[in-house]
Write a structure and sequence with these properties.
By secondary structure, this protein is an alpha/beta fold. The protein is 35% helix and 21% strand.
């Protein structure tokens, strides 16, 4: 299976790519949504793992573009959102 990873943090990008490959899949990892969009148009991917908040094009816009593109196969999209510091959601305790 071919996966596309869009993640602006280089350490996270490398770790995700390595994890995907350990499970026997092929990973293409790029640092932002714009590069991910270009890679997506050039190749055929079954899964996209994208950071929500990235420079140039965020993960939501990348997902929107992928969903709007006519295709004969379904692409699964995993949107990852991480926040540092206090919890934004949940019990309100931080």
């Amino acid at each position: 299976m071919r996966l596309l990873i869009a993640e602006d943090d280089s350490v996270t990008r490398l770790n995700l790519g390595a994890a995907v490959e350990r499970f026997g899949h092929e990973a293409t990892a790029v640092p932002d949504g714009s590069k991910a969009w270009k890679a997506f148009k050039a190749g055929q991917y079954s899964v996209v793992i994208s950071d929500w908040d990235m420079p140039v094009m965020d993960g939501v816009e990348l997902c929107r573009r992928i969903r709007e593109r006519p295709s004969d196969h379904y692409v699964y999209f995993i949107l990852v959102a991480t926040r540092g510091g206090r919890h934004r959601y949940g019990s309100g305790r931080g």
